[in-house]
Specification:
Ferritin, elongated, 5 helices
Length: about 170
């Protein structure tokens, strides 16, 4: 059984994961209208779907543990970006924020002596390590490319491999 404090904190994470899905969906919609970024667009759409799955996993856990999962209202995400580089910098910033939020949940679970929730959250801890690592790798590559259009062309092609490798590591 979840304590009220733990349930409220998990429901806040439901909102964060739902908002993350919206953030990446907005990035995908923006990238889709940029010429030549089909693979980057697909990357953002897949990321949005993944965040929704993270949200659903939390909802099921809350309900399975005798709590009540609340479906939150969401804020309008940023809709446009000055560049692809900027969008990926925002992605990294957002993943760091999510990691900090997961760490707070783990802290609450331990303070509440809720070891079942602590155990459940370890999947999210590992997931966030991978998400931040992927985002940093992408940002490092974009930093190397700078404003080189040829490099961006190759990055657009290579992001399929980058995301496939990231997905294989998460499996």
């Amino acid at each position: 059984m979840l304590t009220k404090k733990m349930q409220d904190a998990l429901n806040e994470q439901v909102k964060i994961e739902a908002q993350s899905s919206q953030v990446y969906l907005a990035m995908a919609a923006w990238a889709e209208i940029q010429p030549g970024f089909d693979n980057i667009t697909g990357f953002f759409y897949r990321h949005s779907d993944e965040e929704r799955m993270h949200m659903l996993k939390l909802i099921h856990f809350i309900n399975d543990r005798g709590g009540f999962a609340r479906i939150p209202s969401l804020e309008q995400p940023q809709l446009t970006f000055p560049s692809i580089n900027h969008a990926f910098k925002e992605l990294l910033k957002h993943e760091v924020f999510v990691s900090e939020s997961i760490n707070k949940l783990v802290d609450i679970a331990l303070s509440e002596k809720d070891y079942a929730t602590h155990n459940f959250l370890q999947w999210y801890v590992a997931e966030q390590i991978e998400e931040e690592s992927l985002a940093r790798t992408i940002n490092d590559k974009l930093e190397l490319i700078g404003d080189d259009k040829g490099g961006l062309y190759l990055f657009e092609r290579d992001i399929l491999q980058i995301s496939v490798e990231g997905d294989a590591e998460q499996a």
